[in-house]
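Hi R.,

Here's the chain you asked about this morning:
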Amino acid sequence: MNSFLFGLRLLWRGGRRGRARFLLMTGGCALGVACLAAVLTIPALTAAHDARSADRDPWPVIKEMDPQPVSNVSFATREDAYGAEPLYRVFVARTGPGRTPLPPGLDRLPAPGEVVLSPRLQEVLHDHPGVSGLVPGKVAGVIGPAGLAGPDDLYAYIGNTEEQLPSDARELAWFGSRFSPNPVVDESTLDILRFTLSCIVLLPLVVFLSVCARLSAESRARRLAALRLVGLSVKDTLRVNAGETVAAAFLGAVVGVIGYLGFNEVMARIGLPGLHWYPADGRPGVGTLAVCLVLCPALAWFVGRRSAREAALTPLNVRRTAQRKPPKKYGTLLLVPGLGVIGGYCVLSVLGRDPSGGSASSVLVPGAVLLTGAGLVFGLAPVTAWLARRLAGRVRSLPLTLAMRRAEVEPGSALRVVTGLVLLVYASSLTQGVLVELDQVSRRTAPVQEYQIAMSEISPHQQGELARVEGVRASVVAVQSWTPDTGEFTPSVSAVIATCSQIAGFTDWSKGCVDGKVLRVHESGAPTEYDAKPGQRFPFALKDGRRVTIAVPHARFAVGAYQPSVIGSGEILIPPSLLPSAALPSEGTYLHLATAADDATVRRTLDAIGAIAPTAKVEPVGIVFESLHQLTVIRSLLAAGMVLGLVVGVAAFVVSVADRAMERRGQVTALALLGARGGTLRVAQCAQVVLPLGVGLGAAVVTGWLAESSYLITGGGAVHWDWAGLPLLVVSALGVLVVGGVASLPLVRRHVDPEHIRRD
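And here is the predicted structure, written out as tokens:
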């Protein structure tokens, strides 16, 4: 303990430089810990969101489990979309006297003609009155925070009579379930998100904290060596060093946690696109505090002990600046298995083979990504030293020769300068791959958008109004042929009841369509569930119990439909005069509408459908709004992670460059006394930064793009090679290279200070 306290006294009484170094270490650790706390709190945010969503989930009565259930409330749920946000509606109706179950955030269930809304939905209704058709009734209250997944939740309880409830209404047992029916991010996607955030934030963060723990490493090593030479033991020397590093790291951790708490209070009121949270959700838990306040100082102690061990064991070599050992090359070998796996998947894709699917790729690709990233970090120093040695023997420029010889002798200092930025560019490519993969499985790209509505949930009058909604290009009725309920397989055929002009509103082109005739639909390359043969006869049921038999014709017409679509190969087109939609049974019959696919038209059409048939379930064909909302949340979290990673990478660069400039003041002074000009020193300093940064960024772009491609290849999506994202990655790397070189120029001062010249 005495040695530890002695280290603290030396630190604080070591003059302005010592105090500046201590404050710089503290500030760097504070910034790193604040970023670490933000990343570690993300799972807590999503968990709190899902827990409140699970607590309000209505649970139906299961008669198989309770033969004589007692329930005096019936309910039906609807999930719609407002833009890219989900809109949840719960229709409730009392069916008998007695006490009713209540969801969190409500004092009572709404009576018929009343609605209880979330605060955000109330704002939407005030700003966009056209949405009021989705929540018919008088606003009787606001849902409390306990009943909302987040402040931006769009949720409503709508009171009805028992007769007004839709046909799929069920008896209510209670509110609450073990699992959230609408998680903010799926579990499988959450694993991908955790891995990606670890790559873009946590890996650069470890580098940054290590850099902060090794600030002024050369000066501290010389001071520790002097203490060792005057009689201090090896253990006491290491304890003195621990007093410096641990004190700075712990104080920085405390400041970082306090800073994050204030940042969380502000961001909770601003939120991210698609994700808002209450301030209490973002406050760090016990585990996060333990990591920030214990593991970070422990990391600083480990890094500081490793760097101080040489000074404690061989103090004469440190004081006399013995020749440094060349960097070890073993870390470069990590690139071999990493690039082997990544490159293998890329080669399989080039050869036309599909390696997607299976559990092996879910383990091999993340492992290869981590090995490649580690190889970039540990292999940068030996590669830089080798390249600098080769260049130093060939260049004829004095500034470049000075820079290359310094990089050859001391590649480790350059490694600390550029590693954070190299990892950031490498992880950015992987982030692009994650977004491309999620986007292509969630979004419909066709110019026509279809909407499916069950005929059992709308009246004939509502059907007519829906067909006349502004922006609707065409409407058709889809029906399946009748099959007997015998338990055996009976062939059936899908039919579309429409005219040729209605078919044209759903397709890109059609050829050979004739009104008034039964025709087969043919689309080249489209899959069919059952290929009906010409001459086969299929019965279609009517409301009055009769069945109309339709024979599959020989005549057919070709279409070019935007799949998935109600218009598909193998179906038959029936004129409305043969099977009027009013005569068809409601069950198994669907109304399909077609509009343009731009976001404004889709939003306007969904609002209009909700106003005409508020209890009807609308399925936008080809759009998974839950996935789109999750994609918005993931983009927000990844963007926040990229910002944190950029802050960490830039901070590591700035701190390292500033510290390196301070450490090299003696060398710069000696060169200035020998007659070196200021321009020569600045060019040498810039080249020392640009060489490892250029090597690292070039390797990061190549390996990152290959890692992204291997992820896309094994993901099973249509996009395997992200050519569109490669130019952006290259431009970003060049921008980082230019900024890094320019930022290193002002840190060289051609000021002769005799104090900086050593007198061994």
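One quick note: The longest helix spans residues 15-55.

Cheers,
M.
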